[in-house]
Structure formats: C-alpha cells, structure tokens
Design brief:
single chain, mainly alpha, 2 strands, globular
C-alpha cells in the first residue's frame, strides 16, 4: 500500500463512522482482531514496512491510533458525545515477531489517553 492508500483507508473509517452516526446507530466497533488490516499494521509478523507506518512499535501503532482519531473526529464534528466508539483486538499472535501481551499493553496505554470505550 502506498501512503496515499493508507490515508484513504483512514478516511474511509471516518466516513463509515459518519454513515453509522447518520443512520442512528448508538456506536461503532473498530475491528482490529483476527488478522484484519489494523492488526496487520500493528503486528511485527505482518508489518515489514520501513517507513512511517512500520518498523518500531510506535510506527506500527500509528495506523491504529489514526483510525481511532479519525472516528473520534467525526463523532466530535456532530457533537455526539454519547456515540460509542469501541475497539476490538487480538492480544497475542502465536508466532515469531507476532504481537505480544507487552505490545498489547502498550497499545492499550495509548488508548487510555483517548476517550475510547
């Protein structure tokens, strides 16, 4: 994926949030488990990038955090503080360079700074 592809996908998450909000849903759940795209960005096993989206744990975490921020931007844009934004993840991967509990805890610590449910 190019950088433009990644940024477009982040915008697509925001747009999906907007559609859900306009449809009257109570919230969304960002699916970042079961080897889906968000998990693949965070996983050292899958993510072999050497740009701003891969390499260090902080760079691999960036996609997850930007998706969450994009969804919260939409919620705030419509002033819908009761609109729930959840996040589901797989805490560990059972192979070399897979996500460890230590890495999951670091991601959770980053999420604690956000109003995620």
């Amino acid at each position: 994926m190019t950088n433009d592809d990644i940024l477009r996908i982040i915008k697509d998450f925001a747009y999906s949030t907007e559609l859900s909000l306009k449809a009257g849903y109570d919230g969304i759940e960002i699916h970042a488990a079961n080897n889906c795209l968000i998990q693949q960005f965070y996983s050292g096993y899958y993510n072999k990038r050497n740009d701003e989206w891969g390499g260090s744990l902080e760079k691999r975490m960036r996609f997850s955090l930007e998706v969450v921020d994009a969804c919260y931007y939409i919620r705030d844009k419509y002033n819908k503080t009761d609109f729930i934004i959840g996040y589901i993840l797989s805490p560990e991967e059972p192979f070399d360079d897979g996500i460890t509990m230590t890495e999951t805890i670091q991601l959770v610590r980053a999420f604690v700074k956000k109003p995620i449910q």
